[in-house]
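We emphasize that the prediction below concerns an isolated chain of 214 residues; any contacts that depend on oligomerization or on bound cofactors are therefore not represented. The input was used exactly as deposited, without trimming of termini.
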Amino acid sequence: MAILTLCALANPAAACETALLLAIDVSGSIDGGDYRLQTEGLAAALSDPDIVYALTQDQVALAVIQWSGTSEQALVLPWQRMLDEGDVARFAARAGDAPRAFTGSDTAVGEGLRFALAQFAAVPDCHRRVIDVSGDGQENAGFSDAKARSEAADAGAIINAIAIEEPGQAFPITSYYAKWIITPGGFVMSARGLQDYAETLRLKILRELLTPVG
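Result of the prediction step, given as a token string:
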């Protein structure tokens, strides 16, 4: 028993540096093909060797929610600590196969953020709390986006975003997320269509995990 105790003290579990919650848009503007691109893109990003290293070195806690209308938010993958490569591989596989929680509804970004913020109560030991929200539309229901951002900032959480833009010159969703959604110190990245989602998400997660201030 003494030997076991000494070993445990000599090799303490690493502290959870970051709780990273991935909040995925499944509102009416996301069709079946778009949904698969999001889930497959998430699985591909989490399978990247650089991402695997970043997740496991700080034993990051990961969770995934899906959000749509005002009363439509679901925790589809609960919190899991990324202790080793196997944990990341299993989480990525589950993310790629996750069923869609809602279809054909509104875009209540603020309600999705509030639901996301509430999930951090389950991981109080994590030093940083980051909401990684992605979507392709501005809020059209609930109308609580600015208030939800303030609530997250007051709670010490960071909101970063991926704006999924249509091909072309304009960046309306990026501008919306920058003005109304991300918290001070947060950032927004633009994906030109969902085909660009996986690589944008990969770069975004690396920035979130390797740049502590967001």
